[in-house]
Write a structure and sequence with these properties.
Keywords: Signal. It comes from Caenorhabditis nigoni. The protein has 2 domains: 52 residues; 85 residues. It is an all-alpha fold and 194 residues long. It is elongated and about 65 Å long. It has a two-stranded antiparallel sheet. Helix 5 packs across helix 9 and helix 7 packs antiparallel against helix 8.
């Protein structure tokens, strides 16, 4: 019972509404790193969320992987008695996933900043609304984390619900322009780690 209460308290910490900014959840890092239920991933997630720059995030993540990575082996059930275990998290793939994940997080920050800057400068929204919409973006991203197309869809739906269909449509138009003109940003946003 005490153990369940402890895990419930940890869960509340990660689901606190004030964390609707650029935060990463433990299950996301577990998926990226192809390892589950490890304290070092919880600690990495917490420390990662405290960092301000991509360089700091990259350094911390790679150091943590180097210091904590262990092979995850799976013995195929249907392969018979003499089957050899399969390595489920090769370190080169784990590091590649982590690097791409960090680049995707940076791309998400760049995308929402550019979207809101253009929307503000064109008079679609004011600066106060921009900050509120930024929080909504990260709130939707925190809950979804299942691909950029779905994130955009859910985000624009949330904007439509909280503001208006017109504001949502104008933001979508600006978004399309950003993604069509910045191919590097576009490619980083669509990277997946599943």
């Amino acid at each position: 019972m005490l153990k369940q209460l402890c895990w419930f308290s940890v869960a509340l910490l990660f689901f606190e509404p004030s964390l609707a900014s650029d935060q990463v959840m433990v299950p996301t890092f577990e998926t990226v790193l192809r390892d589950y239920g490890k304290q070092w991933i919880v600690e990495l997630t917490y420390n990662f969320n405290e960092l301000e720059t991509v360089e700091e995030a990259r350094r911390l993540t790679m150091e943590t992987i180097d210091n904590n990575w262990a092979p995850v082996l799976l013995n195929p059930v249907c392969a018979g008695k003499d089957s050899q275990p399969t390595l489920m998290n090769p370190i080169d793939k784990v590091k590649e996933n982590a690097e791409n994940f960090i680049l995707q997080r940076e791309a998400l920050k760049m995308y929402i900043s550019e979207l809101l800057q253009r929307a503000t400068s064109s008079g679609v929204i004011n600066s106060t609304e921009a900050e509120s919409i930024r929080e909504k973006f990260w709130e939707v991203e925190l809950r979804q984390q299942i691909g950029f197309d779905v994130l955009k869809e859910k985000f624009f739906k949330k904007v439509s619900e909280d503001y208006s269909d017109e504001v949502s449509r104008k933001l979508e138009t600006i978004s399309t322009d950003i993604l069509e003109t910045d191919t590097l940003l576009n490619s980083r946003l669509y990277w997946t780690y599943y």
